């Protein structure tokens, strides 16, 4: 049966995460409902990464198996006509049976935007995190370097995490500042439940001077979630890009390009 890959973007503020729930208020539920109507048959999706309530998707990738034939443009326009305004298919492409949205992924990149200002902005509600204490970029960058590489991330793992192992390889953790905004880039082979939000909480503690950068190494060594900072809000977190082997020839849009395209921010400014 032919396999189809779809790139999906969504504003997570309206949804109870990606994974299907009895309430039906999830991105997966709405995407599968639209697919079933579009294809006139029940269809299940496999995604690259399950995002939590309030977390956004810019580069989510899913695959489905169906024998129904549709023009490529119809996959995008037809599905989007059936989806709510907060969810939209960005591209569609036929892939070989060897492609798997989750298991074929080589890495995943999450972005987190934080606005550092004394007063919150209602225009950024749900789209960016907010910290009113001053943040020190150099301190956060020093702490971030201790997290790069293969580590046991038990101290940054949710108690509800179902992963078989807490060991992950964080390939990159970059932090940039532009005016009042900080952009955090996390790239890894895979992430644990709440891992990015827990890392954010700890990095922001360091940035505010509550702990020294060396605290990161201590947290990794102790492997105890109770010693780390609280989980930070999901508001500014985006699943921005999923990387696959070149053999699948999927659209290759950088994480930043995806973010700035959707938010209407110029790349030249950051």
UniProtKB/TrEMBL annotation:
Show the active-site residues: 52
Q: Which UniProt keywords apply?
A: Isomerase, tRNA processing
What EC number(s) has UniProt assigned to this enzyme?
A: 5.4.99.12
Q: Which Pfam families match?
A: PseudoU_synth_1
InterPro entries xref list: PsdUridine_synth_cat_dom_sf, PsdUridine_synth_TruA, PsdUridine_synth_TruA_a/b_dom, PsdUridine_synth_TruA_C, TruA/RsuA/RluB/E/F_N
Q: State the reactions this protein catalyses.
A: uridine(38/39/40) in tRNA = pseudouridine(38/39/40) in tRNA
- The reply to whether Nucleotide-binding figures as a keyword in the UniProt entry is no
Residue ranges of the Pseudouridine synthase I TruA alpha/beta domain? 9-103, 143-245
PANTHER family reported in the protein's UniProt record: PSEUDOURIDYLATE SYNTHASE, TRNA PSEUDOURIDINE SYNTHASE-LIKE 1
Q: Which family does it belong to?
A: Belongs to the tRNA pseudouridine synthase TruA family.
Q: What is the annotated quaternary arrangement, including any partners?
A: Homodimer.
User: What protein name applies here?
Assistant: tRNA pseudouridine synthase A
In its UniProt entry, the species of origin is given as Pollutimonas nitritireducens
Q: What is the lineage of its organism?
A: Bacteria, Pseudomonadati, Pseudomonadota, Betaproteobacteria, Burkholderiales
Q: Which gene encodes it?
A: truA
């Amino acid at each position: 049966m032919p396999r189809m890959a779809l790139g999906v973007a969504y504003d997570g503020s309206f949804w109870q995460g990606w994974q299907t729930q009895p309430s039906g208020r999830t991105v997966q539920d709405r995407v599968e409902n639209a697919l079933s109507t579009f294809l006139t048959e029940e269809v299940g999706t496999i995604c690259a990464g399950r995002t939590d309530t309030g977390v956004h998707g810019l580069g989510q990738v899913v695959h489905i198996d169906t024998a129904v034939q549709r023009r490529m443009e119809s996959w995008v326009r037809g599905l989007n006509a059936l989806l709510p305004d907060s969810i939209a298919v960005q591209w569609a492409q036929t892939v070989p049976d060897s492609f798997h949205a989750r298991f074929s992924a080589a890495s995943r990149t999450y972005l987190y935007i934080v606005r550092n200002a004394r007063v919150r902005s209602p225009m950024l509600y749900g789209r960016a995190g907010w910290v009113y204490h001053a943040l020190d970029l150099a301190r956060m960058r020093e702490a971030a370097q201790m997290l790069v590489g293969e580590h046991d991330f038990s101290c940054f793992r949710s108690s509800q995490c179902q992963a078989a192992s807490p060991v992950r390889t964080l390939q990159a953790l970059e932090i940039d500042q532009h005016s009042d905004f900080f952009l955090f880039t996390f790239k890894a082979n895979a992430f644990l439940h709440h891992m990015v939000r827990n890392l954010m909480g700890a990095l922001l503690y360091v940035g505010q001077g509550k702990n020294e950068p060396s605290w990161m190494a201590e947290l990794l060594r102790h492997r105890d979630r109770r010693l780390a900072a609280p989980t930070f809000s999901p508001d500014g977190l985006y699943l921005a890009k999923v990387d696959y082997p070149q053999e699948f020839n999927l659209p290759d849009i950088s994480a930043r390009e995806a973010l700035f395209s959707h938010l209407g921010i110029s790349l030249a400014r950051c």
